[in-house]
Every structure is written in C-alpha cells, then in structure tokens.
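tool_call: predict_structure(chain=1)
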Amino acid sequence: MARQKGIIKLKGTIGGVSFYKTQDGDLAREKGGVDGSRIKNDAAFARTRENGAEFGSSASAGKILRDAIRPLMLNTADNRVVSRITKVMTDIKNLDATSARGERSVGTALALPAAQALLKGFNFNKRSVLGSVLHKPFTVQQNNGMITISNLVPVNDVVYPSGATHVSFKSAWAIVDFVAGTSSVEYSPEVNVPLNAVITNVQCLPPNIPIGVATNLYLLSVEFFQEINGVQYSLKNGAYNALAIVEVA
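tool_result:
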C-alpha cells in the first residue's frame, strides 16, 4: 500500500491500481487477489473460509456491544473504537476451546473467567483511559449495578480539561447475549458535581435490573461540562471524556 501525494487525490481504480481514502489518509494499492467464487467453493480455501467466518462473528459481537451502549459512547469513544473492540472480541473468541474451527464464538468463550478478564477494563476512548481521569477507587455492586465513588474530592481526584466547571458520572448495567445477538441495558441518572474541593459521595444506580440471563457488563462514564450563566454545556472533549467496562460477570 502506498500514500497518495499531490494536490489531486484519486478515488477508484486506474490501470489495476485502486485509490481510496481512509482515516490514515489517501492510499493506493495494486488490485489483485483470488477470485471470490473460488474462495467460496474451492477446498483449498477451507481454512480461509473458516477464518473469515470467525472474524465475521467477532466483528458482529463487537457491533452488538456497541449498539447496546451507544448512548454512553456518543461523547466518550475514539474513532478507532470499532477496530479495537473487534480485536478484543477476536482474542476472546480464540479462547473457545469447545467449538470446531470456523465455529468458535465470543458467546461461548465468555463463559470462561479468562475471556471475561479480556473484556473487563476495555476503554472506549484510547485518548482518555478511565484510570488516568479518575484517581479514586470505586466499588461495583453486581446485584443492583450501583457504582460508588466514596469521599471524592473532584478538584483533586479528577483530571479535568481547561475550562471545565463540572463533571458528570453515569453508569450502565448491560446484559448482553452474544449468542442470540440481544441485549438489555439500564442506565443510572447522571451524577453531576462541581469541580471543587467539597467531599462528595457519588452513587450511580440504575433504576431497574436489565432483563436476561447472559454476560453482565458494568460500565462507568465520565464527562465534563462548562457552566455559563447557569447553563452547563458539554465540552465533548475527546482528550478527557472516558468510558470503560469496569466489571464483567
């Protein structure tokens, strides 16, 4: 693959070379590869088909997760989150030691503690890892989904962007069935506190228990605001807003 340089950027295929635009810039590569019908039917490509099926399954698992908690991701995810989630899901799928090659899945693997450990701690914004923004321990109650941050001193325990006057905490309890492709999510009300030296006990409690019996995911988000004339405006600062999976069960 090569980068396009110059004033005019090409798109499409010219002389066997494909020109296209990506997040990394305008690229070009020679067109080639094996005919699609051969990959689908030739026995020599059985392993390729199996790998493709498993990759597709991992990508679908990532989409199920993203769709489930999309409201939390709006201001707290980076532009590489899709590929990063797919990578984690692929690593989880690889732990499926019971399914046949080509049929290994995230849903089967997540019954294992080792697979759950790969998902726990995933940060949706690589520019703002939760642990680098919130410097205070918190607890997660799995029976009701409540996340508690005790004795928080916002001005000391939170790393905040210039201009921020308030910080909001919000949690989610999601039950995601990666086999059936379904999910149920309950969100806590936002807990909004000023960035001052007042000691605060933050409790993010979803109002209900989500429906289902599958993988339980507990998430915590941190978002910053600036108050002007009594109105708070989201800074939508990708360098500081954070969202992470803090527990998996």
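agent: The CA atoms of residues 28 and 86 lie 25 Å apart. Proceeding to next step.
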